[in-house]
Amino acid sequence: MTNRRTRLPLAILAAAIPLAGCISFGPKPPKQLLTLTPAAAVPVGPETRTGGGRAIVVTVPVAPAAVAVPRIPVQTSPTALAYVKDAQWAEAPTRLFARLISDTLAARSGRVVVSQVQAVGEANDQLDGELRAFGLDATTREAVVTFDAALSRAGQNNVEKRRFEARVPVAAIDAESAGPAINQAANQVASQIADWVGR
């Protein structure tokens, strides 16, 4: 009787060991995580100061659900979406894009980019917007970045709105091609925004 009770838990444990390698408690992570790299880097060392209309707040843009996720959307038809296999952003694409705009603005226009907390008490410009497209278009084989910008300049009651878009040819609809092509398109849009805001 005692031997039978002892053997039963051991038999269950022995049966469970081969299954341990087959059980997953979350999605399988991709081989690599993608990020954005600014083409125009902020120089190390020089000090910048706010004041004189030089400061600007860049908020994290809003985005539709298909773009806001870490996966890379692929427009397969005018009404259908898929996602690139084994490709994922290191963090929310809206945050990556906001940081890219901030770095590009600082490097190209000399503007001082401050957070909303740092901006309290000072009159600063503010850039908001919606990231409408941030992925691949399988029908044209292009990386597409579309951003609807809304700029509020300090001391003015009106809001300036403008749509920016960049399209970069992509060799294939896969993880290896998606990252560099979207990065290039995002940098083109960020440069256009910096030139617009900096004028």
Shape: globular
Give the N-to-C terminal Cα separation. Answer: 88 Å
Spans of at least 5 consecutive residues with low confidence: none
Q: What about the largest sheet?
A: 7 strands, mixed
* Overall number of strands: 7
**Proportion of residues in helical segments:** 25-40%
The CATH topology label is Rossmann fold
Query: If classified by CATH, what would the architecture be?
Result: 3-Layer(aba) Sandwich
Strand content: 25-35%
Count of the domains: 1
Radius of gyration: 24 Å
CATH superfamily name?
ABC-type transport auxiliary lipoprotein component
CATH class: Alpha Beta
Mean pLDDT: 83
Number of helices: 4
Order of helices and strands: HEHEEHEEEEH
Helix/strand-derived class? alpha/beta
